[in-house]
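Regression test case RT-17, inverse folding.

Input:
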């Protein structure tokens, strides 16, 4: 899913901002923020070996703000970031969930479905947990998360995101 996201959305991902006013609020800020959150999350994984699903956490770190490619998208040849109607009406979390679900459907070719059958956890469990990481990464309902972090990787992602946003 991460590779497919980068293949399909690389140009928008590279030029999107991570925010409008606070952290990484500039063209290209989303890539910088995502990379920093991945670094923080990877470092935390070394403190708790065997207790965290590192692959899930790093995928969540890369994709947690993927809805911002729509919400905070700079036009291709400009430094202007117009407000997108979908960004204003929905926000980046539900749009990110929609992007990941579409990527997942695109990824699940008949060959990939067959390969996933022998893997643990099962594909649907992985997708559900990845969506939970995106949905809960703000950490609190009053900060815009539709749900609170309920698995260790979601809690770590929330804090890794917050550390980078504050730094």
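Golden output:
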């Amino acid at each position: 899913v991460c590779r497919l996201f980068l293949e399909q959305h690389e140009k928008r991902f590279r030029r999107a901002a991570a925010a409008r006013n606070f952290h990484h609020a500039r063209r290209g800020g989303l890539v910088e923020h995502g990379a920093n959150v991945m670094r923080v999350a990877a470092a935390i994984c070394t403190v708790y070996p065997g207790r965290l699903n590192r692959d899930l956490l790093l995928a969540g770190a890369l994709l947690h703000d993927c809805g911002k490619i729509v919400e905070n998208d700079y036009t291709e040849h400009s430094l202007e970031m117009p407000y997108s109607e979908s960004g204003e009406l929905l926000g980046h979390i539900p749009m990110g969930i929609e992007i990941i679900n579409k990527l997942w459907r695109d990824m699940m070719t008949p060959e990939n479905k067959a390969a996933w059958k022998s893997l643990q956890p099962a594909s649907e469990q992985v997708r559900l947990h990845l969506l939970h990481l995106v949905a809960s990464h703000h950490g609190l309902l009053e900060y815009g998360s539709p749900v609170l972090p309920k698995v260790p990787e979601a809690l770590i992602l929330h804090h890794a995101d917050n550390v980078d946003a504050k730094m």
